[in-house]
Design goal:
Elements: H1 3-45, H2 58-97, E1 102-108, E2 113-119, E3 123-124, E4 131-135, H3 142-146, E5 150-156, E6 159-174, E7 177-183, H4 190-198, H5 214-220, E8 227-232, H6 238-252, E9 262-265, H7 269-275, H8 278-281, E10 288-290, H9 292-300, E11 305-306, H10 309-319, H11 323-335, H12 338-351, E12 361-363, E13 366-369, H13 371-380, H14 387-409, H15 413-421, H16 424-438, H17 445-466, H18 473-479, H19 494-506, E14 509-510, H20 512-526, E15 536-539, H21 547-556, E16 561-566, E17 590-595, E18 597-598, H22 603-609, E19 620-621, E20 630-633, H23 640-653, E21 658-663, H24 666-676, E22 682-684, E23 695-700, H25 701-704, E24 709-714, H26 727-734, E25 737-745, H27 751-754, E26 762-765
Parallel strand pairs: 2-4, 8-16, 8-17, 9-10, 9-15, 11-14, 15-16, 18-19, 20-25, 20-26, 21-23, 21-24, 22-23, 24-25
Antiparallel strand pairs: 1-2, 1-6, 3-4, 5-6, 6-7, 12-13
Helix pairs in contact: 1-2, 5-6, 9-20, 11-19, 12-20, 14-17, 14-20, 15-17, 16-17, 18-19
The chain binds adenosine-5'-triphosphate (ATP).
Adenosine-5'-triphosphate (ATP) binds near residues 206 and 570.
Keywords: ATP-binding, Helicase, Hydrolase, Nucleotide-binding
InterPro entries: DNA_helicase_UvrD/REP, HelD_bacillota, P-loop_NTPase, UvrD-like_ATP-bd, UvrD-like_helicase_C
GO biological process, one term: recombinational repair
């Protein structure tokens, strides 16, 4: 019997003991909670009994206010305690089934040996003296992730603690029973990781705390740099590390950090729902989560309908050969660059002297303040004052002018007609107000009503003025595309790009490539508050952000610590350039971490896909065995559908639960769905799909990004379909597979397969 087996009875007894301790704690908390709940109900019922309400004198009012405040505070205090007890109960409940996953025996220099058990939360003994379980994020727990047996150290706020690890043990505990335990000499033993990765893919991402790898732990616990940039190959655990990092930060700064202080940009709503469970599973609330699309849409306002990145992608995929497509492609590349940001900055500098377009103030279809008058006032102000500060001065001036006009309007004839049209309620309201204002003196009822009518009509205009609606931002932005001939490094097709952009703006449409530039420009013109509430910003799939977009983000969050995670091999939106946020040559306060090991796929899948990875990075497989990818050459094109169906059914019979037919575009997905519908039970995933389900999914690669499936089938991998330019798309599609990959061709396969050694895949001819 091995050492591990010898300890089994001891370890199971310990688990049982912990189970008992937890039950006792639960009982105590339940008793406290029930008292508190009773208190809260009672307090709500008798809230007013203990409040002395007296409104006779100003002093009495103040006293009454204080008394209500005191009572409310008491209620809030009790509710908060109740909330934190409920949270504690939830944590205990999770620990009851699976109290811990690891143990290390650590002898600190000069101290006695201590057994440290590591789980998803800390647990103290009943005397609150000793830790029965340490939270995986506690400083001492980093020993488990970072070291094998032997000398080891960890950091605390008081300095480094060093010593010796003499045992490292892993557990799989379910429902309070130890299912397996392994002693390991390596950092984190392969067995547990093998078991985690060997399972079927899940429709929601799982936390990886039990098997975090050393290099991932560096990302999770990084605290030094203001900007942490992680380049990691497909399936290396970037998203997993990002989420565990957020959980770590929430724990490390639990006194200072609220969920609103952390923001996560994820690639699309489907992906957001895919990762939504991870933080709650770790006992943390979800943080602010959005996509860059929604973020920008909020900034641009309602003037435009903004094209989504997917529609842009679809346009590019289906219009590549057309003249419009070529022009647009050049436009996208230019508008993604820092050179374009400079063009905007130069244009904004010119606007200090002239050029901002204004809209007239209109009342009852009449211009009451012309746009020329507004422009004259704007440019009469000191030109050293920023544009947005001048906007505020203009707004104040307009409101004053409006007050004078409003006064004049009150006695005009049209008001009488409006009074007659007032409904009973409005009439009564105005009358009541009049009575109150008059307080005993003679009431000029008509005058009061006139004022009420006019004031109501002016209220909307005033509100719009306060929102700077008098500035014609779209028109001012469009002008940028008219006079740039003097700019250096303009793309050759600039005039056509400009014409395309102006046409879109005039139709109230913003192409995705114009969305961030417009939002940036609008912020320069009208003012955009730097967001100080976000202390940590995590950007997943960062390679899909253009240099322009990232520069904009940095201006909006000047004091925020950022973590960027991505893979240059998967940059499907932007042609990868030196300006890509992952490659930016930032010197100050930047730390870079590279992940080269791919955990998602089997060894055989990595040995195949790494031959056509677009970059030159090293890609190491995790040693998990599986089948070689399958290349199915269908000789007769009309048999393709039947072969495809057989392939999918075969995979299904093998027990795979998520099988994705990954296509290049949504157009291809829709076509395939039409063909297969009724023949097999399949689901079309498009931009409107917000949750991810098991089954046979038909999905375009740009929506499958970041997600994984048990098996991936590429329905058409011919060289006509995946040309040289589609390397990133093809690579991204193939790397979504965890266990199996099947590639179909009818004719010549794509060059990427042809250049891959034949011994890395199995070829079948049908
Ligand atoms: N340390 C780990 N322990 C267990 N599973 C892991 C670990 N690291 C990664 N994985 C698993 O590997 C898979 C890929 O992880 P993840 O999606 O985080 O990678 P990624 O780098 O974001 O991938 P991609 O860039 O291809 O979208 C997931 O199933 C994840 O649970």
């Amino acid at each position: 019997m091995t050492q591990m087996h010898q300890d089994f009875p001891y370890e199971q007894r310990r688990v049982d003991h912990i189970h008992e301790e937890i039950k006792q704690k639960e009982l105590k908390i339940a008793a406290k909670t029930s008292h508190l709940k009773q208190d809260v109900i009672e307090l709500r019922k008798t809230f007013w009994d203990d409040v002395t309400v007296n409104l006779d004198e100003p002093d009495d009012v103040i006293e009454t206010e204080a008394s209500i405040k005191q009572q409310a505070e008491l209620l809030t205090q009790k509710e908060t305690i109740h909330g934190s007890l409920a949270k504690e109960l939830r944590t205990l409940n999770r620990l009851k089934d699976n109290p811990y996953f690891g143990r290390i025996d650590f002898t600190e220099d000069g101290e006695e040996k201590e057994s440290i058990y590591i789980g998803i939360a800390s647990l103290m003994d009943s005397a609150e003296d000793n830790f029965l379980i340490y939270d995986w994020r506690a400083p001492i727990s980093s020993l488990y992730y970072d070291y094998a047996l032997g000398s080891a150290s960890y950091q605390t706020l008081d300095g480094d603690v060093s010593g010796e690890i003499s045992l490292k043990r892993q557990f799989i505990i379910r429902n309070g029973v130890i299912k397996a335990m392994f002693d390991t000499g390596l950092t984190i033993g392969d067995q547990l990781l093998q078991e985690a990765l060997g399972n079927n893919a899940s429709t929601t991402m799982k936390s990886i705390v039990a098997t975090i790898q050393k290099e991932q732990n560096k990302i999770i616990r990084n605290e030094k740099s203001k900007l942490l940039v992680v380049q990691g190959v497909a399936g290396s655990g970037k998203t997993s590390a990002a989420l565990q990092r957020i959980a770590y930060l929430m724990y490390r700064y639990r006194k200072q950090l609220n969920p609103e202080n952390v923001m996560l940009f994820s690639p699309n709503p489907l992906f957001s729902s895919y990762i939504r469970n991870v933080l709650p599973e770790l006992g943390e609330e979800n943080v602010r989560q959005t996509t860059f699309y929604y973020f920008v849409e909020e900034k641009t306002g309602e003037e435009f309908s903004i094209e989504s990145p997917f529609t842009q992608m679809e346009y590019m995929l289906t219009n590549k050969g057309t003249t419009d497509g070529q022009i647009r492609m050049q436009g996208i590349a230019y508008k993604s660059s820092l050179a374009f940001k400079e063009v905007i900055d130069n244009y904004v500098a010119c606007l200090y002297i002239s050029g901002v377009c204004f809209k007239p103030v209109v009342f009852r279809n009449q211009v009451i303040i012309s746009n020329e008058a507004i422009a004259n006032y704007f440019y009469s102000l000191d030109s050293s004052v920023s544009l947005f500060n001048r906007m505020e001065l203009v707004a104040n001036w307009l409101l004053k002018e409006l007050a004078l006009i409003q006064k004049r309007e009150v006695s005009k004839d049209w008001v009488e007609e409006k009074i007659e049209l007032l409904d009973k309620e409005a009439y009564a309201k105005a009358y009541y107000k009049a009575q109150k204002q008059a307080a005993g003196s003679v009431v000029d009822e008509e005058m009061i009503l006139r004022k009420a009518v006019v004031s109501k009509m002016f209220a909307r205009i005033k509100k719009r003025i306060k929102q700077y609606a008098f500035v014609d931002v779209p028109k001012t932005f469009a002008q940028l595309f008219k006079h740039q001939e003097q700019q250096k490094d303009l793309p050759t097709e600039w005039n056509d790009i400009a014409a395309q952009t102006i046409k879109n703006i005039q139709s109230n449409i913003l192409g995705w490539e114009d969305a961030a530039p417009y939002a940036y420009f609008k912020g320069k013109l009208l003012g955009d508050m730097a967001d100080r509430s976000v202390r940590y910003l995590v950007i997943d799939e960062a390679q899909d952000f253009s240099a322009f977009q990232f520069a904009y983000i940095k201006e909006l969050f000047p004091h925020t610590r950022m973590t960027l995670l991505g893979d240059v091999n998967q940059a499907i939106y932007n042609p990868i350039s030196k300006q890509n946020p992952l490659l930016l040559d930032e010197k100050n306060d930047v730390e870079r971490i590279t992940l080269t090991k791919s955990y998602r796929p089997t060894k055989q899948l990595v040995q195949f896909t790494r031959h056509f990875a677009p970059g030159k990075d090293v890609i190491e497989p995790f040693e998990r065995e599986g089948n070689k990818p399958k290349l199915v050459d269908v000789k007769e094109e009309n048999q393709l559908v039947e072969v495809l169906i057989n392939e999918v059914q075969e995979l299904f019979q093998k027990g795979y639960e998520t099988i994705a037919l990954v296509t290049k575009s949504i157009q291809e997905s829709k076509q395939l769905y039409k063909t297969l519908k009724g023949k097999i039970d399949c689901i079309l995933v498009d931009e409107e799909t917000y949750t991810f389900t098991k089954g046979i999914l038909i999905i375009p690669v740009y929506l499958a990004k970041g997600i994984e499936f048990d098996a991936v089938v590429i329905p058409d991998a011919t060289n006509k379909h995946y040309t040289k330019e589609d390397q990133i798309l093809f690579y991204t599609a193939c790397t979504r597979a965890m266990h199996e990959l099947s590639i179909m061709v009818t004719g010549e396969p794509t060059a990427f397969i042809k250049e891959t050694p034949k011994n890395t895949y199995q070829m079948t001819e049908i």
